[in-house]
Each structure stands twice: as structure tokens, then as C-alpha cells.
Design a protein that fits this description.
GMP Synthetase, Chain A, domain 3; globular; single chain; alpha/beta; eight-stranded mixed β-sheet
């Protein structure tokens, strides 16, 4: 089924219910949202000549227009390519080029960075600023019905996730994949009604946007904060304004929201659910958040390759304080989701026993079809019909998965994935850098912070500010190192491989 059918049905059943709100006020109801998505779909097909199966970039901060663009693409049989709005212009260019996007929608503050790409990318021909006069002209077209050529395996969302080389890979999510994610939300996360809402404080291009889909399917309100992002004080005010509120938040956001609620001493009775994921949630932090908000939490463990759906820890387990292993459960990622098979395997892909640590793999209808234009990576990641997550973990005797470490040296800071090699490659562009190695160091606010160990070439004098400027010229601000450690040599094994474990140990020692 075309995902656009969800919006058409919602308009039939919940037509006059608020579909999108801008801050504290309604923006459009479901009837208007469906009509605009249908008109935009026609414009995409006739004004821009896009054919079913082609891709459309969406490089936007959270905006009221986001959902009508997303569903307009699906209505026309196109694949959406939502891009993290925080990325550097060079990174955005790489994604749009790799995705072969002919058209890109941008929010106004990103137009200056994205519009020039039309002149340098082979396929990109048009950049449209959402909510502009040019954008509004697109709604003069008559609406079209959802494209019936769409099959369950048709590409719907090209989700770019960092790869082991630092280059993003496009996880191909089909209409079936996302529909399975939606149904799984109802089975394992939460029930939703038309009086509920989701506040999109986290990016619509990632988890919050994905979890907007089950809310839309049930006629709930999608609330876009005026800040267009995460502001704890604003989120608390929105909770007070809207009943039945839900969020998807990274653990660091949960901590900041709980701290703000404690300071402000505001009523949070309207809060229904906080789904958290995207990074490690420490038990002490979770207990503090439960003390502030009550057991209104659901943990999810998933990836862009299996969106939001591998294992999970439901609300009732967060509330089951009498269980003898309550704290151990809070420290786990929960049991496998209803319709997903999950195993922990060794290097030979054979299942490991209870308590043994290995790679987490899974399979099910939620797992991506593969990586866009990357058959080698697809074959490796999906070998044997299982998604190899690259995460290390173990199962206990009751089927709870505990994640032990992130493989391939992934750093998770503020819920964002950062791969060290990408930063190392930038640092090595400096003529005075002989060697470098990037690792993560635990940080109480962000989860981890990026630290770079740098070896200077003989006779070179390096300054942290100079390296910082180099990083800001090539990668997103949130990826740059927070600290630089200038050393004479890097620790290596007999094969010349840098021992990052030893570097982390150095950072853990008292100064």
C-alpha cells in the first residue's frame, strides 16, 4: 500500500481535526493537509516532470510544510530523501548527488547553502524554498490520487546513515518497511488517538519524522515548535498546552528536559510518552527522569537500516520497580520487538549463548532493502538474509538485549552518529599533521565528546584553533573535535594499527 493512503484515510476520518500545529496555534487540519499533498504531487509530476521512482531531496529544519512535502512525494510515487539540516554544505551536496535528486526543497535559512548546488551537481536542476511565493504557486495544480504503481517494495525514504568510511550510505526504506514500523509502534510502543499529539523537537529528517507517521495514521496532531528544534523551556510550555503529548528524544535531550522541569517546577500532567533512543541512556539519568516525569518512557533500539525497530523496553517495564532485576532491565535495550528476529552472533555468524558478547543481527519486514547504489556494502551488511548492525551486545536468560559497545569506533554525541575516520581524513589535509586518531570520551551532557590525538610533522607548529577552522570548512560543526591532544606518537600494535582502546584509557586517567 502507498503510504500516501494513510493521509487520504486520515482526511476522511479526521478531516476537521488539527493535523499540523505551528507552536501553540493550529496550522492546518487533515482535510487541508491531504488536499495540499495531492496538489503538490501533481505539481511534482507535471510542473517538474518527475516520474515514479525518482528522488526528491528535503533539506529543511523542522517546518510546518515538512509533512505535506513528504506525503506529496509519496502521493506522486516518488522517493523522499530527508537530509539532516545540520550537515555542512559539502556533506549535503554529496548526499543529493549520490541520491540523484533532481529537485530539492529547502527551508529559508538553508537556501543560501543549497541553491548554488544546482550549478555543480549533474542531476539537481531546481531548489524550491518552502513557504515561498514560488512554493505556493505549486498548489495551483489540481490534486491527484495516490500513485497506484507503488508496490510494497517501492522505495519511499532514502535514509542516509553514516558508513564505516565516514561517507554516508543511503538505506533504502520501502513502503512495506515503513508500514511495518508503523504497525510495530502500535504493537510495542504506544496506542495513539486523534486527541493526542507528537511534539517534533528532534529532527523530522530522522527519528521524530519516522515516528510522526503512526501519529498521522491515527489522526494525531503534529506540533512544530516555534524554535524549529529542541528548546527545553519551550517544550515544557507545549506540554502544558497540548494534552496527550509524545516526543521522540535522544537521551541527552531527556536529561536536559528533566533538568529544566526540575528548575521550573512546571506541571507535566499532559505528558503521555517519551520514546528515547539513538544513544546510550545511563541508568542513573533514566531514574532521575522517571522521578521527574513518572514512568512515561519507552526505549527503542533501532537503526536507519531497521527504522526504530529492533528491540525495545516498554512503559510497563519502566514502571515495574518491584522486579528483582529492575535496574538491570533499565540498563538493557529490552527484548526483541514483536515481528523482528534478533540474534547475537560470533565472527562466523553462528548464534552465541546467553551472556556471550557478539554482533547483534536481525531480520524482518522492517529491515531495509539495501544501500542505494552500493551492492558491495548491501551484500556485506545483509549477508545470510540478516541485517548485521555492527553493534556488540549479549542476551540474558530472559531475552533482554544489553548493548556492550558500538563497533567500528562510532561516537554518539547528542544522539548524532559521528565516525572518527571522517574527521581524521579532514585533519590529515593539514600539511603539518603527520598522524591523527579520533576517539570519543564520555560526557555527562552529550553522551560522548570528540577528542583528536594529533602528531605534528617534524618542524611544524600546530594550533587547535587552526585545526578547528579546517574542520569547520569541511564537516558539520557538531562533528568537530572538542579537544585536541598533541602527542609525539600514537600507540600501535604489531601490524601498525592505532590502538584506540589505549587512547580512551589515557583520557580516562586522572589529569
Amino acid at each position: 500500500m502507498n503510504l500516501a493512503e494513510l493521509l487520504r484515510r486520515a482526511a476522511e476520518t479526521y478531516g476537521d481535526r488539527p493535523a499540523v500545529s505551528d507552536g501553540f496555534g493550529p496550522h492546518q487540519d487533515y482535510r487541508a493537509l491531504a488536499a495540499r499533498a495531492a496538489r503538490l504531487a501533481r505539481a511534482l509530476r507535471e510542473r517538474f516532470g518527475l516520474r515514479p521512482g525518482e528522488t526528491v531531496g528535503i533539506v529543511m529544519s523542522n517546518q510546518p510544510a515538512y509533512l505535506e512535502i513528504l506525503f506529496g512525494c509519496w502521493q506522486a510515487g516518488l522517493a523522499a530523501v530527508p537530509v539532516n539540516a545540520k550537515l555542512h554544505a559539502r556533506e549535503i551536496a554529496w548526499i543529493l548527488d549520490n541520491a540523484e535528486a533532481r529537485l530539492c526543497f529547502v527551508s529559508a535559512e538553508l537556501a543560501e547553502a543549497v541553491a548554488p548546488l544546482v550549478a555543480v551537481l549533474d542531476r539537481l536542476s531546481t531548489v524550491v524554498v518552502a513557504a515561498s511565493t514560488e512554493y505556493e504557486r505549486l498548489f495551483r495544480f489540481d490534486g491527484m490520487a495516490p500513485e497506484r504503481a507503488v508496490t510494497p517494495d517501492t522505495l519511499a525514504w532514502l535514509f542516509y546513515t553514516s558508513g564505516t568510511t565516514g561517507r554516508p550510505k543511503g538505506a533504502m526504506l520501502s513502503h512495506r518497511n515503513l508500514m511495518r514500523m508503523i504497525v510495530n509502534y502500535f504493537a510495542d510502543v504506544d496506542q495513539i488517538g486523534p486527541g493526542d499529539c507528537i511534539i517534533h523537537a528532534a529532527p523530522l529528517s530522522h527519528g521524530s519524522g519516522l515516528y510522526g507517521l503512526p501519529h498521522l495514521a491515527k489522526g494525531a496532531n503534529q506540533v512544530i515548535p516555534h524554535s524549529r528544534g529542541f528548546d527545553p523551556a519551550e517544550c515544557l510550555s507545549l506540554i502544558g498546552h497540548y494534552p496527550g503529548t509524545s516526543f521522540f528524544l535522544a537521551p541527552t535531550m531527556v536529561q536536559r528536559l528533566a533538568a529544566a522541569a526540575t528548575r521550573e517546577k512546571v506541571a507535566t500532567g499532559n505528558l503521555k510518552t517519551i520514546v528515547y533512543g539513538g544513544g546510550p541512556m545511563y541508568v542513573a539519568d533514566l531514574l532521575r527522569a522517571i522521578e521527574v516525569f513518572g514512568p512515561k518512557f519507552v526505549q527503542i533500539y533501532g537503526q536507519g537500516e531497521a527504522p526504530m525497530t529492533i528491540t525495545g523496553l516498554p512503559k510497563w517495564m519502566h514502571a515495574d520497580t518491584a522486579h528483582p532485576r529492575y535496574l538491570e532491565r533499565l540498563g538493557s535495550a529490552g527484548p526483541a520487538r514483536t515481528d523482528v528476529e534478533v540474534m547475537v552472533v560470533g565472527e562466523d555468524d553462528r548464534p552465541l549463548g546467553t551472556g556471550e558478547v557478539g554482533e547483534v543481527i536481525c531480520r524482518g519486514d522492517v529491515v531495509m532493502q539495501g544501500y542505494w547504489r552500493n551492492p558491495k556494502a548491501s551484500a556485506e551488511t545483509l549477508r545470510g538474509g540478516w541485517l548485521h548492525t555492527g553493534d556488540m551486545g549479549s542476551f540474558d536468560a530472559e531475552g533482554f538485549l544489553t548493548l556492550k559497545d558500538r563497533s567500528k569506533d562510532l561516537i554518539i554525541s547528542g544522539g548524532s552518529n559521528i565516525y572518527p575516520r571522517e574527521i581524521e581524513e579532514v585533519l590529515l589535509r593539514h600539511p603539518g599533521v603527520a598522524e591523527c586518531s579520533v576517539v570519543g570520551r564520555p560526557d555527562p551532557e552529550w553522551g560522548e565528546e570528540v577528542v583528536a590525538f594529533v602528531v605534528a610533522r617534524e618542524g611544524a607548529r600546530l594550533e587547535a584553533a587552526e585545526l578547528d577552522r579546517l574542520c569547520l570548512d569541511h564537516i558539520a560543526r557538531f562533528k568537530r573535535p572538542k579537544h585536541y591532544c598533541f602527542v609525539e606518537t600514537l600507540p600501535k600494535n604489531n601490524y601498525g594499527k592505532v590502538l584506540k582502546t589505549e587512547l580512551r584509557q589515557r583520557l580516562a586517567r586522572p589529569a
